[in-house]
Amino acid sequence: MLEKLRELWEKSPVVRKGKYRYVVHPITDGIPYLEPDLLDDIVKSIMEIANLDVDYIVTPEAMGIPIGVLLSNKTKIPLNIIRKKKYSLDGELEAFQKTGYLEGKMYINGLRAGDRILLVDDIVSTGGTLSGIIKALQEGGIIISDIVIVLERGEGREYIRRITGREVKTLLKVKDR
Prior knowledge:
Elements: H1 2-11, E1 14-17, E2 20-23, H2 26-29, H3 36-49, E3 56-60, H4 64-75, E4 79-82, E5 93-98, E6 103-108, E7 116-124, H5 128-139, E8 143-153, H6 156-164, E9 169-174
Parallel strand pairs: 3-4, 3-7, 7-8, 8-9
Antiparallel strand pairs: 1-2, 5-6
Helix pairs in contact: 3-4, 5-6
């Protein structure tokens, strides 16, 4: 499984978003397509290393969703999706996202202080999305039991450790391209 992920990474096209070199990969973008067997292998690997004693699996849109849906289906743990759209619901938490190529806000709904969660996503690069989400969850009193990311690129994992004090588990570290 990890070799297939690595192989796809090495073959994926690179596009520029300003000064940022963005790798267009099936797991991070759904391009050219998501292979069911690869998604299955990813979910099995997450289940082997993650703390699954949680109330919810939480993932940001967009590309965390395919992973989160399959993981939720296999574990029967409800899935909560962090959205880019504000709903202004009671208890809504706001997370600030700053990546190598964009800035914006994300919104967390349906979670309450004391909820135990597993946070999953497709990639950590700069750490700018994940660190903002972690801060918002912590400020909301949500217990982050574990964090598992499929691909690790760049210094984002270390940045998250430094900024939030949280450890991030990853399935595969890839080279910056």
